[in-house]
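Field: sequence (string)
Field: structure_tokens (string)

Example rows 1 and 2, in order.
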Amino acid sequence: MAQLNIGWSEVNITPDKKVSLYGQFAERISEYVEKPLMATAMAVECGGDQMVLCACDLESVHDDLIAAIREKLAGNEYGLDENKIIFSAIHTHTGPQHIKPATGVKNGSFTWIREVLETCLAPGQKYVEAAEVSSDPTVATGEEVFVMLVERLTMVCIEAWNARKPGGFSNAFARAAIGMCRRVDYSDGTGQMWGDANTAVFTELEGGNDSGIELMYIFDDAKKLTGIVINLACPAQCVQHRLFVSPDFWGETKVLLRKYFGEDIFMLPLCSPAGDQCPVDLVRWVNPDTDVHDPNLIRHNPPVRKADPSMFDIEGMKKAGKRVAREVIDTFEEGLDEPQTDVKFEHRHYLMQLPLRRATLAQKIQAEKNIKEYIRNKNGADVDFNDLAHLQNDIGILIRFVEQEKKDIYDTEYHCIRMGTVAISSDPFELFLDYANQIKARAVCEQTFLIQLAGGSAGYLPTEKAENHGHYSAFIPSGNVGHVGGDQLVRQTLKDISELFGDDYKVYHYADEQ
């Protein structure tokens, strides 16, 4: 047992220029800043071990960005272990992409897919951007954003580390309907991301949802609240198609929490595994107010529903943010446990070797045929984001086939921490909810905080059921690892949690009563 020392910092990571908004097929340029993008860091030191959780209002935090920050921090004078910083993203689609300078390599699967598509075009054909993100000089480049992020994310981690003081935390639980399954299954055995449920062949939403919110209220040694850690299973994707910079519903949550607790309160937003989750109710579909330019979301004359406002619009975003804030405030008002200050603390981190999801030769050959036939049927017409969406799987298969000739293991950054009665675990995937439920149900601790898109961006990690049903998020190129690796990740996480907590928590088995 040792005294917890905790520090906070927050930094603005909003680019000074307009940005190419990242995360959709259609190219978008920001028109204004709805709310600024922030990075928030909480540093913890206890008993000679340490951890920094750095949550970023970004779509993802890619490996090359993390590597650049850690290189900058290597051998620092503060005693901060750069390898024990966990960088994560809220997965907002109204933020910028970042590209490592001077390599010529774009980070992000859709950029790669577009580059391959352009090599397949007939003479005279070209790719036409929905917005001129590649040629507008007033738009910040991915390289400029990368350089800015390296500086500011390095700074926020150092500031949080240097601000650490004796403190403690009260972990708690709340519940709010934020995330819902975004994969629809049909009677022919197929499934579809963002599928239309208003059809006689609709059978079910493929997965469940988790309305639970894992909470930590952080206090200083005078028991004054300094910040709140909020962990829930939903990406920040309410206004994901809009033409502004925004941290989505998390921005609204922060505004309301600071209105109640004070402007000096920190909020650390952590997205729990939610690869198949979204804020949109696909059963009670409400059309967005404006065109979202997404071929997966086309609905022809849907019935008018009495339901939530469209979660593709600002009104829906505010509703989601209000729900989270209300639960955080209500839980605080209802009373918390005495803060944990002297605790057992241990941080494990390593590269977990998971099997790369592979494509077969037959799939490669079929993909090549599909691309050629599709381009031929265009009859020389130019292509755009709609064509990119249509060909994403076939082009992705070709990319994966080249990649798998060089490696068969995906080195996965993984962290598992014991902090008092709480376990914290992270991975770089958009991990499907079923895996999180398996971990939380079986973990031998009081409460489990799971963080997705942390320590890199490794794509979706679907269940076997989703792989069998197909479509985006379950395609082979949608992620680097498939369900076999997902099962391995669950087993290893449970093993580490069990070892970290030892005999402090009894593992219950039904056989004990026989």
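Row 2 begins here:
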Amino acid sequence: MAKINKLPVEISNLIAAGEVVERPASVVKELMENAVDAGADTITVEIQSGGIKFIRVTDNGCGIAREDVKTAFQSHATSKISSADDLNSIMTLGFRGEALPSIAAVSKVNLITRTETEEFGTSLNIEGGEITDIFDAGCAVGTTFIVREIFYNTPARMKFLKKDVSEGNFVAAVVEKIALANPNISIKFIRDGKNVFLTQGNGELRSVCYSAFGKDFCDGLIPVDSEINGIRVHGLVTPPYNSRGSRGMQYFFVNGRSIRNSTVTAAFEAAYKNTVMVGKFPGGVLFIEISPERVDVNVHPSKIEVRFSDEHALFDAIFHSVKSVLDNIDSFKQAQITPSKPVNTQVFQKKHSFNEPQSAEQTVIPQTVTPSFESNFTVYDSASNSNAYHTDENDNGLEIEFPVLKKAEPIELKTEEKSTDCVYNEDFKILGEAFKTYIFVEMSGSVFVIDKHAAHERINFNRLKETDHHTGSQILIEPVSVTLGKDEYTAVLENLDLVCKAGFDTEDFGNGSVIVRSCPSSLDSQEIAPLIGELAGYLLKNKKDIVNEKMDWIYHNVACRSAIKAGDKTSPAELYELVKTVLYDKNVRFCPHGRPVMIEITKNELEKQFGRIQ
């Protein structure tokens, strides 16, 4: 065995530095966190060449006293803790005493600092961990760190750095995170001589989000603020319709520290379940304030990973805090209309095979132009005190009456033969239906477009979740037998209680088959066999899913199969009841898969398209 030697300090410092300093962004993170801990309310970060050649971080915090300047660069020297007990109540961002010596070990550092009680400041130069110069300096109260030529003495580490642009982007991300965590601090970021980021330090989180992410992201943000299980959760989250393609816009902070934690992420996304499309993710900036005794931040030198003593309490606090605000919003997606050109008459007529009238007698000039369903015209009689709608008599001499909407109620859609041009309500007007899929409604200075399948699917889903399976099921005249593969058959038998709870009275029929004697009342009997087959496959593949997730899967599929399909003919009575529920039930905003049920086209957007307004 080779002789065991104690490593020289300069080598051990380089090894330790590798845990803290991965790239220029790591340096900026550590120096900015020190500035926050020093009580600064103004921080300026400047980089050149992605931070590889030059980093300067300036703050107006408390500064470092002359007698402590040298000590600050010694390993495990810190002002944040003094005993082992302090580790149980850490509220500062730094505490390990590793940042400054690690940075100094792999770069050339110049420190300029002064405290309020000192007449002169102190300037210190250190290269590769060795102090080369220290002298008096005239400077303002606070601290400035200048870091040059990172990894100049460790070329192997230099090879792993990316291009300047990429490294600069990593730095920008760090600056944004610390700015989000500290809206009361004015933070400026200068990149290659250009001011690229500035926050006001006015304490407004929304203002910081606007500086970091722009107007589109910030306009729809929803405030969250509640305390559950002794854990306060507050911040801003995106509405469901503003979901993203990745988790890149999720920012979580525990006691002001940016963290990564699977429980936090899972709880946050669980609150959006059934409102965000598969493959999409919600965004937001969420702060978790918790007693320091209940969280361990001393997990890794980077301090981005933390552990919680009670993850169930944490999950519940985040989930219910976010879910409660999502349940109380009444929002829908606004259509984004792209600039368009006027219709080319020749192209339009050719495309739609329009024929010119042969004579003046054939030319019809309508007095009014009304979008049409298929036949008669229905109008609300505003002059009458009667709470009814009436229509011109049809071939059977019948009238259709619709009660004036007072409160949205669960609806049971039925097949009707009646048809109208335009249905009015005191609050809204149904203009018509396009492609037998989209319903157009005018209300409050906007046109709302409703996807009738998505809307009906959500209504069915909500009803299934709210209805007791005994009262919400129908007994089948002829029970349905379903033959399954052996593994799927076993999976269903292992989950019979769950299947019955979902409204399917199901029994073992032997030899790989089950028999279904009742099903949810909204489901057609012809849909039972294929749905049970799909359910068996799902149960086999997702054995580890919790019961609630399995139940939701069943409700999703029942709701989808029993909903009006795109392209189906829908009567005016059906349309009216569907529109009424969508407009007045805030729980019908997204289908169970997360697609929007309704979008809004404002009058202003339309007038812009036609050049009426600029």
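free_text_note (row 2): The chain is about 30% helix and 25% strand.
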